[in-house]
């Protein structure tokens, strides 16, 4: 666990973080979200890419953590189906979606110097694109917040098996909360079906994990959920830099 000096001055101390992490380790998502509401309220925000688990999280949060804000990172290369479900969320739940874009000048410079598919040249080039389009905007999105909430699950890929319900994000100096950490894909879809939760139309076309359009494909039935993300790379490298586990 990180020391309290690694976190926002108004966030949890290391002892409080340890206690919360242990108390909520296997707690239901509703309980985790209720804790976020009590402890942080509007000082916390859900980071959403509007995939299936994010839609479940938004639905649960409207019930158990209504003060928590909602934001997204618009990379400029999202599929149209993602924008469509974003609009459905805005209207159905009556929430404002705070949208953060990459720096225009940096995007223009990247595309002018390296073209439109530099991310396929190497892992370094792909991570550079992700850093520009996702990581830097995330830093701005989290500025001034004390906690962020994600839809990350342990079963999504080999890079996420250590995800906990509550953990320190030392890179951003705040608390990271993953209420669905112990959920499986079946639980996610059972909830969606039982509660009539809207979802991205690409899920019905074989896309269990959806990111930027050029970096996402449909998967085979035997492949893991995130196999369609940056499919030309090794599974061990399939993170964009938003979620770093130390």
UniProtKB/TrEMBL annotation:
[4Fe-4S] cluster binds at residues 129-130, 212, 215. It holds the Pfam family PAPS_reduct. The active site is at residue 240. It catalyses: [thioredoxin]-disulfide + sulfite + AMP + 2 H(+) = adenosine 5'-phosphosulfate + [thioredoxin]-dithiol. Keywords: Cytoplasm, Iron, Iron-sulfur, Metal-binding, Oxidoreductase. Its EC number is 1.8.4.10. The keyword Iron applies. Its cofactor is [4Fe-4S] cluster. It is an enzyme of class 1 (oxidoreductase). Belongs to the PAPS reductase family. CysH subfamily. Residues 45-218 form the Phosphoadenosine phosphosulphate reductase domain. This is Adenosine 5'-phosphosulfate reductase. One of its GO terms (molecular function) is adenylyl-sulfate reductase (thioredoxin) activity. The keyword NADP does not apply. InterPro entries: APS_reductase, PAPS/APS_Rdtase, PAPS_reduct_dom, Rossmann-like_a/b/a_fold. It comes from the Bacteria.
